[in-house]
Amino acid sequence: SPxxxxxxxxxGLYGPAEAKISKELPDRAAMEVLLRPKVGLPGxxxxxxxxxxxxxxxxxxxxxxxxxxxxxxxxxxxSDAGSLLSCCLNAACMALLDAGLPxxxxxxxxxxxxxxxxxxxxxxxxxxxxxxxxxxxxxIGSGERKVLMATTKGSCSVEEMQQCLxxxxxxxxxxxxxxxxxxxxxxxxx
Amino acid sequence: GRLLCGPGLRRSGAGLLVTKCGLLRHRAxxxxxxxxxxxxxxxxxxxxxxxxxxxxxxxxxxxxxxVGGSEPASLSYLAFEGATKRNRPNVxxxxxxVGDLIYGQFLVANKDMEPEMVCIDxxxxxxxxxxxxxxxxxxxxxxxxxxxxxxxxxxIIQDLSQLYPFELVLGMNGRIWVKAKTVQQTLxxxxxxxxxxxxxxxxxxxxxxxxxxx
Lengths: 190, 214
Fold this sequence. Notes:
heterodimer; A: alpha+beta; four-stranded antiparallel β-sheet; 7 strands; 29% strand; globular; B: alpha+beta; CATH 2.40.50.140; five-stranded mixed beta barrel; three-stranded mixed β-sheet; 4 helices
């Protein structure tokens, strides 16, 4: 069970709903992501994360089945203890599964931190993130563990990035199994 | 025969793509069909579905109905039993106002066009469709519960009919309209139907036993 202080994000998905004429797309659904921080107004960091989340979600949602509609994903940060972006990615995917939107694949988010001496840490805490030389976040798709999104803060070599990616792909199996277990629990009640 | 690919499955290249999570179901009759039974609350209009719509506007020759999807549906004045341009029976434009409930089926429903509803079937008979009367209570449940209630010999409906006599209209868009003799009985039925989503059969029977005991 998560203890207070762990990173947690609440996700709400609305759609396919009516879109504003200015925002509707003629051939597919228009996806919008809103990320609300725990305190304060959304700033530039939230905006850039919203775009990363939006691009990842658009890659998996079958928007062509719902043209001229809007799909809105609202994420509210409840607590931040590190690895926030990957937590948002996981929450977004679970919201998509729960709402029953048609998807071509599921995805999960994994954060890697590179120590100054080159050690790879998965799902770093806030302390570890501050001490790290580079922080890499990957969105891994479920089919063949392809990379849907990658973002880096800091600098690292190409070999280090490949190592982090391999570690993230291995870690994604645990998260996908968690998705399976949650969905299984939900459908076993009906 | 041909194998049918139902909701939740999609043909992609030579194989099938699963697009929703849920229970995979199979029907062997008539060539066979596979589909995924998934739970969702948002309705997407499908041709042939019987739904409950709420009239939101009258525009020229059509009504605009809210069916819970991404677009309002249209319903022509003439799509009722026995309606012609000259002969407009009183079940018609004059009696039907904004806010009324209509039970009808989709004639046209696809992703590219605005959904169109009618209140007659292919032979021109109304077969239970049309304006839903005054009083009663309209509420929304998940689509999975509606499918469970519409199954033949549904236990929930049988148990409830032992309790009080009532009128029930089920819309595939997740809307249910109930009317019993008194307001209190109507509200009790509404609460039981809403709770049925999360109750097991034993819990439901216990709740009903407590109510019929009162």
